[in-house]
């Protein structure tokens, strides 16, 4: 590949980025509140009235998605039986409770994405299972570990206060509950608050509209993934072409009378290659400890400088990781790249984007549509998507790609959407416009824990999250997070991060309970020392700010701010961090934590 081709590519990427930059950054989006609050209602489960709870539990777990379920399961396994999960949804599942749009599917291989497979004995049916099976698996975990009995669904925590005298947390909710907990565990997710595009006139639309994460099957028909029969006589617009839209557009394409896909930035569409899992193969493979071995093999393949010889998952994610790892090979021997540390990345980028573009050309029959579906941004700037039917959907006579040339939908009217002065009249608008990112975590949580000395978590985190391991926070005794920010690593299998976090938190709580400890607290020194090594690599920050197309990875192209998704610990690699956590919780010392008994 010539250096001229690389320069041309970079110039085109920069021009496309410039079209998308806007001064309002993340403020361009609207919440599903106020006049849009109806879009945030739960379309899946009826709310059941109940009396408020005024009792005490050993552990209150806020969030019943993967994080909360794994933490609760490990607590139960460690002998802490009195666990109560509180969740805003009507059942367990978190992301997978809410996101039920047609075609919803995991993007990371089932064997390493679905938690607790060995413990529950579930054999995934597909290499990338669909949403209903993931939701059912969450329910399976709930039943297997007896988590339903004490759970509070359709319940939003509104207050969490440390009671110094009682050495307990008081948990308050929007259902009038006010109960105490010795320990609280927060598994709140990173992409859990849906957002709407702040398009002028959005409130004036007189047709039907909903967010993809609150799919209205009563309107579209068929709640279990069959044909969306009610759309046969409907003109539908979908706004957004990110990971959610990519999965549901092929279904809308064949179901709707007419589908308008409103595109601001085309996604990279990688190969999916889904296939059924052969139960016989699985039975032979699944010897004791298999899931942990697979998890660690993937972590090492994705993040280690010297990846293992065998790549068990061997998919588009691991291919991408190997491509970055071997990027030097793409630089021609004669090129002098000593002045440009990112040069290998650029060469790899151009090569890979060439393949992505070729796939579009091979699949999409109309050459103009194909051109518009080609993404022009650096691969690392946006979340990859994976699909084998998405591009082909644009060959359906019912589907019309309405590209906005990076500007976004101009206006919404009572009748439809306007792009470049043309109004497209529709019966329904589906917002596949993503989730709130870049705001304070306590805002997204909907409550602001008050720890020792009346100090709020939002104050402690005014300049960004501060933790040790992403799990413990100084000044917030007996409270734990199950999440990955300020943890040791970021890579594409969040489920593995949550698994190691959950095991660690459960180990600390179980240790406290079995040794009669009342209060567990992170020292200031331990938090400071961990945070000394947390931050965004300066080159990467510059790259995000100056070369990446706007998106949730870079606060829509504005300054990253204190609450970006990128403040990972500078740990050598993913597996190294997990080994550190295993050693930390396994040696019984829990370095950095102090354990107090009230009688001592
Ligand atoms: P995203 O934030 O990725 O996508 C939002 C889409 O809305 C983008 O295409 C965006 O365009 C578009 N948009 C926003 N404002 C406007 C506007 N004014 N006019 C036109 N278009 C607009 O949300 P998703 O729900 O698709 O995905 C969020 C994340 O959730 C993913 O990145 C992934 O991490 C996760 N996810 C995981 C899945 C899995 O594992 N199976 C499946 C789905 C999601 P632009 O790109 O220009 O900003």
Automatic annotation (TrEMBL):
Superkingdom field: Bacteria
Keywords: FAD, Flavoprotein, NADP, Oxidoreductase
Family matches, as InterPro entries: FAD-binding_Monooxygenases, FAD/NAD-bd_sf
Required cofactor names: FAD
Keyword S-adenosyl-L-methionine found: no
Membership in a protein family: Belongs to the FAD-binding monooxygenase family.
Database matches in PANTHER family: FAD-BINDING MONOOXYGENASE AUSB-RELATED (PTHR43098:SF2), L-ORNITHINE N(5)-MONOOXYGENASE-RELATED (PTHR43098)
Name of the protein described by the UniProt record: NAD(P)/FAD-dependent oxidoreductase
Biological source species: Streptomyces virginiae (Streptomyces cinnamonensis)
């Amino acid at each position: 590949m010539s250096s001229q081709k690389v320069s041309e590519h970079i110039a085109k990427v920069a021009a496309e980025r410039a079209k998308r930059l806007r001064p309002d950054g993340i403020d361009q989006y609207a919440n599903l509140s106020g006049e849009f609050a109806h879009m945030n209602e739960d379309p899946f489960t009826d709310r059941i009235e109940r009396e408020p709870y005024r009792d005490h539990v050993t552990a209150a777990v806020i969030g019943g998605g993967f994080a909360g379920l794994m933490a609760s399961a490990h607590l139960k396994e460690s002998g802490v039986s009195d666990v109560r999960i509180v969740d805003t949804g009507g059942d367990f599942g978190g992301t997978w409770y809410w996101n039920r749009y047609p075609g919803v599917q995991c993007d990371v291989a089932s064997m390493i994405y679905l938690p607790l497979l060995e413990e529950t004995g579930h054999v995934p049916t597909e290499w990338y299972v669909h949403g209903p099976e993931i939701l059912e698996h969450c329910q399976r975990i709930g039943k297997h570990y007896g988590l339903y009995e004490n759970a509070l669904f359709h319940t939003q925590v509104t207050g969490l206060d440390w009671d110094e005298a009682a050495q307990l947390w008081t948990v308050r909710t929007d259902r009038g509950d006010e109960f105490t907990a010795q320990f609280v565990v927060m598994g709140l997710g990173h992409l859990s608050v849906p957002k709407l595009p702040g398009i002028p006139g959005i409130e004036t639309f007189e047709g039907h509209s909903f967010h993809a994460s609150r799919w209205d099957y009563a309107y579209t028909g068929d709640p279990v993934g069959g044909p969306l029969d009610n759309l046969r006589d409907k003109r539908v617009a979908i706004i957004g072409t990110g990971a959610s839209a990519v999965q549901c557009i092929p279904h809308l394409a064949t179901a709707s009378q007419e589908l308008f896909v409103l595109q601001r930035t085309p996604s990279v569409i990688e190969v999916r290659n889904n296939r059924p899992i052969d139960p016989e193969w699985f039975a032979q493979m699944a010897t004791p400890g298999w899931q942990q071995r697979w998890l660690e093999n993937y972590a090492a393949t994705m993040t280690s400088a010297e990846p293992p010889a065998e790549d068990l998952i061997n998919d588009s994610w691991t291919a991408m990781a190997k491509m970055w790892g071997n990027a030097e090979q793409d630089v021609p021997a004669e090129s002098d790249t000593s002045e440009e540390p990112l040069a290998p990345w650029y060469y790899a980028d151009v090569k890979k984007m060439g393949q992505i573009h070729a796939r579009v050309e091979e699949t999409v029959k109309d050459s103009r549509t194909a051109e518009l579906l080609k993404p022009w941004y650096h691969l690392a700037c946006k979340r990859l998507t994976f699909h084998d039917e998405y591009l082909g959907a644009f060959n359906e006579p019912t589907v019309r790609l309405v590209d906005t040339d990076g500007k976004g939908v101009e206006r919404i009217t009572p009748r439809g959407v306007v792009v470049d002065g043309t109004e497209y009249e529709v019966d329904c608008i589906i917002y596949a416009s993503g989730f709130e990112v870049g705001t304070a975590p306590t805002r997204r949580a909907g409550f602001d824990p008050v720890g020792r000395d009346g100090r709020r978590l939002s104050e402690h985190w005014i300049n960004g999250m501060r933790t040790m391991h992403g799990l413990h926070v100084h000044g917030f005794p007996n409270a734990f997070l199950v999440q990955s920010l300020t943890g040791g690593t970021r890579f594409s299998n969040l489920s593995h991060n949550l698994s190691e976090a959950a095991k660690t938190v459960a180990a600390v709580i179980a240790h406290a309970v079995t040794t009669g400890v009342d209060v567990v607290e992170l020292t200031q020194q331990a938090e400071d020392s961990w945070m000394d090594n947390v931050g965004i690599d300066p080159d990467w920050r510059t790259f995000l700010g100056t070369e990446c197309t706007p998106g949730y990875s870079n606060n829509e192209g504005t300054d990253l701010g204190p609450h970006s998704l990128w403040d990972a610990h500078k740990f050598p690699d993913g597996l190294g961090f997990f080994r550190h956590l295993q050693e930390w919780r396994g040696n019984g010392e829990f370095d950095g934590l102090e354990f107090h008994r009230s009688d001592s």
